[in-house]
Structures are given as structure tokens and as C-alpha cells.
Amino acid sequence: MTDQPPPPPAVPPGFGPPPPQYAPQASPPQAFPPQPVPPQYALPQYAPQPGPPGPGPEFLAVDKRNSVVVDASGVAFEMYDITVDFPWPEIRSVHHKASPDGKALMVAVVHLDGRVYECVVTAKPRERLRGWFAQLTWVLGHYRPTG
Fold first, then answer.
1. Statement: the pTM of the whole predicted model exceeds 0.90
2. Is residue 9 part of a domain?
3. Cβ atoms within 10 A of the Cβ of 72, count?
4. Count of the separate structural domains present in the chain
């Protein structure tokens, strides 16, 4: 008996290196002329347009049932889950004062057609009313400067 190694196991078809007729042909490296690199992103060809103005100051007074909001879009009242918006172009004037008992803020919007809308917001604690007056006066002065 000769001591020869056993033959290698048969490789199933589709495994192993490709047959010689399918092997890639070695080709000499080719020098390509340098190409200009295209820019990754083109810069805009227009001047940037100014966007809408940034948000301005806001005022908010809230109690259990009512609220008054004054912001860049106008004045909004919410009373018993009903919201009424008054955009600035529709407002002739906005007035505010303390209620007769000094416990609430009263805000009135006079519409361009003369109708008057009013909302009352209770200030608890009572010291909050002074803060509301100062802030509301400043916000209204920003959107409706006296001239």
C-alpha cells in the first residue's frame, strides 16, 4: 500500500474560482486625462428675499373662562370656549381698563365698522392686574404706536 493522501472532496458546481475562460483579462493600466471636478452644489443665482418679520411681543391674560391674546396677528378673545379673532387690519382701536371692583381686566376692540367687542378676564391674585396693564400697554404700543 502506498501512503497517498485521499483525493480532495468534489466541489459542488458554482463554488470556487471561476473557470479560466471566465477569468478577467489583465490589461495594462491606462492613463486617463484629468477631468474637471464638477461643483457639488450650485450656488443660488438670485438675491435672498427678506422673509416675514420675526415674531413680535405677545400678551396673554387668562382666567377660568376667558382669555385675551394680543400678538403680531391681532387680538383674540376667548369666552366660554368661543374664540373671536380680530386681525390688525380690521381693528380701529383697542382699549383696556380695570373693572369697577378692580378685580378684572376689561379689553375692548373697536372694529372698523364701529362695532365694539369686549372681554373681561379676572386677575387672581389681584396684583396680577398691575402686571397685565404694564405688559398690555407695552405690547399695544408695539403694534399700534400712538402718533
1. no
2. no
3. 15
4. 1
The grid coordinates of residue 95 equal 382699549
d(CA 139, CA 134): 9
Peptide bond into 125 cis (omega under 30): yes
Residue 32 placed within a domain: no
Rg of the chain over Cα atoms, rounded to whole angstroms, equals 39
Segment (H or E) for 135: helix 128-143
Distance CA 139, CA 40 (A): 47
Domain residue limits at 69: 59-143
What is the arithmetic mean of pLDDT over 28-48?
Answer: 57
Query: d(Cα 125, Cα 130) in Å, to the nearest integer?
Result: 10
Judged against a pLDDT cut of 90, whether residue 17 lies above it is answered with: no
